Every structure is written in C-alpha cells, then in structure tokens.
Peptidase inhibitor I9
Amino acid sequence: MFKKIYRFIGKPAVVGGLALAFITFACQENQETPTMELEEQFIRYQNGDVIPGSFIVVLNPEGITFRKDGSYEGNQAALRTAANSLLAKYRISEEKLGFVYGTVLDGFSVRLSSEEFEVLKNDPAVKYIEKDRVISIAQGNRPGGGGGGGGSTGQVIPWGITRVGGFVNYTGNNVAWVLDTGIELTHPDLNVSTSNGFTAFTSGRDANFNDLNGHGTHVAGTIAAINNNIGVVGVAAGAPVVPVKVLDSRGSGSYSGVIAGVNWVGARGTSGDVANMSLGGPISQALDDAVLAASNNGIKFVLAAGNSSTNANNSSPARVNGPNIWTISAMNSSDVFASFSNFGNPPVDYCAPGVSINSTWLKGGYNSISGTSMASPHAAGVLLLGNAKTSGFVQNDPDGNPDPIISR
C-alpha cells in the first residue's frame, strides 16, 4: 500500500522552560504507519523524551502543613507557598518553580541541577520525583494535508456518529473539556465556551485558547458539532466544548503542562462533565495520579489508547483505571480493529470509530483523519449524554479479547 510521507520540521518551542525542537506526529489518514523523513536536520526531542533538568515533584500528604480553602486560587497559592518553602530549605531559587498543582496533586514542577535533585528527593516531605517529558498527540502520526477553508454544501453525518447510535441535540448542563491543542474559537459549527478555558503556555503564539494545529478542533467536533445546515454533527450536538490547551501548535507539550490542565479541570469541572484526552506518552505516575484524582470528583475522563500498536498498559494516561475513566481503542467502518491502535484489557474499556473520521478543522473547515485520538471523542460524546451501551464487538483485536463497541 502506498504510504504518504509527512514532513514536519519544527522550529524551537518552549516546553517546561526549555527551548526544544520536535518532529511530532498525530493521527493517520490510513491504517498504515507513515514513514518519518528527517532529511538533513537532527531532531533532538520527540514524544516521550526527557526534558533535561525539568522535574515533577509530588509531596507526601502527611508532610502538608498548610490548609486549603477549597478554591482553585486559594489552593494554588497555598501550594506555591509550600513549594517555595521547601525549595528555600535547600537554597533553590523560587525562579526555578514552574506549575503548581493544588487540586489533583500536592505537587509542582521545577528545574533542578543534578545536585539539587539529589538533596530534594531525600526530603521527608517528598513522596516521589519524576523526570518531566515531552508528550504529544496520541502517540501517532501527524495528519497530512486536506481540510481547512470555509464553506460547506450542507450537513453530513459522519459514519462514526451513526455507528455509535447517532446524534442527540444536547440539552444538559454539563460541558466537554478538551485537553488538547485548543479549539478554533470562531468555528461556526462549534459551541465553544471560553469562560473556563485554560492554556499551559504563558508566552508566544500559543498563549491563548485558540487552536493553531487542528487536532483539538477535530476532537471537539466529534463530541459536539452543532446540528445545523453545515458541515458535520457531533454525538452530543451543540454541547459546550471548553478548550484546555496543553499542547502547542505542533501538537506537543510537557507532562507538567498536561498535569496543570488536569488540575484546572479537576478544580473547575463538575460531576457529569466529560474530559477528553487524545494524547499520550510513556508512563508517568504523576499524570496518572492526577487523572485519577480529578475523576474522583465525578468528571468522566475519556482517554485515547494510543497509536503505537502496543499494549496500552505501557502508556500514560491510557493505562489509568477508575470508575469514571474510560480508555478507548479504534476501529474502521467494518468494525475491524485499526492496525495502529493500542490494545489490552484492561485498560481498554471500549472500541470506537477511529479511521477516516470527518470532523471540524481550522479556518471554519473540515477534515478526515484517523487515530485513537478520533475514537476517544466518540466515546466522550456518548458519555456526556449518559451511560454507555455496547453494540457488538470489534473484530481482529490483537489481544484476543475483543473490545465492546461503544454506543449511546
């Protein structure tokens, strides 16, 4: 089969306080894995790579001496004070402190020298320290061209929406949090709510809620594109979608930044909301712990299984299990397991459409791409509407235990 070669040489981007350069790859336009072409440029950082000198510190609960007032702002301020106090104990400059997590973790991100790391990890207040890493869109391959541009000849119902039981005009009070590359704020087919929007980026072109990549907008459309006379329609049509921007225009970010987004959702979300995470990378205990803690508040977390054709137990946050957490694998329109999809029961709970999925894109346009990134929002839409049902089982599941196909 002919395989397209997607070339994406990134200029340096700031992640975790460091200037990095990436090739990042997201979703696929077919079930084959496109070949990466590096040409003559040396690409230093890719998905899962350690960010040198950047760490995530999680504190022991019994070592917490401050009181939280229950508000996001109050908890953040209290945690920042505690973090600075701990750093000052070892004469570590407070300028090295990054994100603080006052809701889902008692922890923070920080830049440390090797000597500072050694002394801090042995402090009795510290539960564990892990290295910060690069994380990107669902561990797959960046979509090629196509999509973008305005205009539509009329609304169509994508095959994936039909396969999960069709759409419903949403009338509930909950929202869908999209932890991704942002959402195109002016897309005419989306009901974007920015009042609780978040961005992990404090400077540059990504220091806002708007999507400059396309991926987050595509995810949002599958969940909740409006039932009107243009474009496509989502599972929970017209539901509010909230941008939680933890990945940049290249589709990459840091584990520390993603945890900051989860911390935001855990503080601002309410029971019955859904939070879609179509991203992933190597195992991160801190990220897993954050997702589990946020889900304990009744927020439904929906996680892409990943696109590496491997066991999802080797990927975070896909491997997390909990009563309000669902991990989603991908299939094609014939109910056949997608060759790129991760697998494993647990953590996979359902399979959903993830091949040639048509949804909203940049510049008011639409695009068809593939990946578990596309499967996960189908499930998020179903769960926003209520409890999930099963509509058959996927064929050719490589783990030999066919995943149930989600349906509303």
Confidence is low (pLDDT under 50) at residues 1-26, 28-45, 139-151.
